[in-house]
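Private note to self, pasted from the team thread so I don't lose it. Backbone tokens:
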């Protein structure tokens, strides 16, 4: 089969039963088999590869590397994180020298500038230039192409998928796979409270707000990691 074509559908083989302690969640909800869990991971990987390819294509068109594009969008969306090299490197999951190299390249292109922190003249923070903001707008338009594809999903399916993905992020955080996550489901301010009909609901204790599925956040600036 030539490169770039989809592989035949994977047949999920019967798996050995999970150990008793893994057969149900904390609420007694049955957990997926090991084979189904692996298929979920494969599906997530396929999505991640598609996004990486789309991001790389867009970045190349704009004369950027994918990391430079990620750095620009992170600066545009923050804080958090604080726009200093150490925090940005942690946010993007790269080493500080790698982040510094990308920042220097963006500075040469006139897309970012460095400024000294008033509180600590030894440290510098990064700021987008007008040209940098223009490039971020182009990057955002490329993201809207992906959003348009997702928008074709029925509303209830979209909300269910969104909550499920937030749940996967939480589990990856718990497993140490994701270091930085500012989602509602990983926040110390999240509380489980019944709604007016007695059904389980979510509540932000910091903002004193009910959190229906569509209001859960992927990246909340007030996030504090759960203990």
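Design output:
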């Amino acid at each position: 089969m030539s490169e770039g074509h989809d592989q035949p559908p994977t047949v999920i083989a019967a798996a050995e039963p999970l150990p008793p302690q893994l057969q149900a969640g904390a609420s007694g909800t049955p957990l997926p088999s090991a084979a189904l869990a692996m298929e979920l991971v494969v599906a997530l990987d396929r999505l991640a590869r598609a996004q990486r390819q789309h991001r790389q294509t867009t970045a190349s068109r704009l004369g950027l590397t994918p990391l430079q594009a990620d750095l620009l969008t992170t600066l545009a969306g923050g804080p958090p994180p604080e726009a200093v090299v150490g925090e940005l490197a942690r946010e993007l999951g790269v080493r500080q020298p790698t982040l510094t190299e990308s920042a220097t390249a963006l500075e040469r292109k006139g897309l970012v500038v460095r400024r000294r922190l008033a509180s600590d003249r030894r440290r510098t923070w990064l700021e987008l230039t007008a040209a940098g903001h223009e490039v971020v707008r182009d990057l955002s338009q490329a993201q809207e192409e992906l959003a348009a594809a997702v928008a074709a999903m029925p509303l209830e399916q979209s909300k269910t998928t969104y909550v499920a993905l937030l749940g996967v992020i939480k589990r990856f955080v718990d497993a140490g796979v994701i270091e930085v996550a500012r989602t509602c489901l990983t926040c110390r301010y999240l509380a489980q409270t019944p709604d007016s009909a007695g059904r389980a609901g979510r509540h932000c204790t910091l903002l004193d707000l009910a959190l229906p599925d569509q209001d859960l956040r992927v990246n909340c600036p007030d996030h504090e990691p759960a203990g």
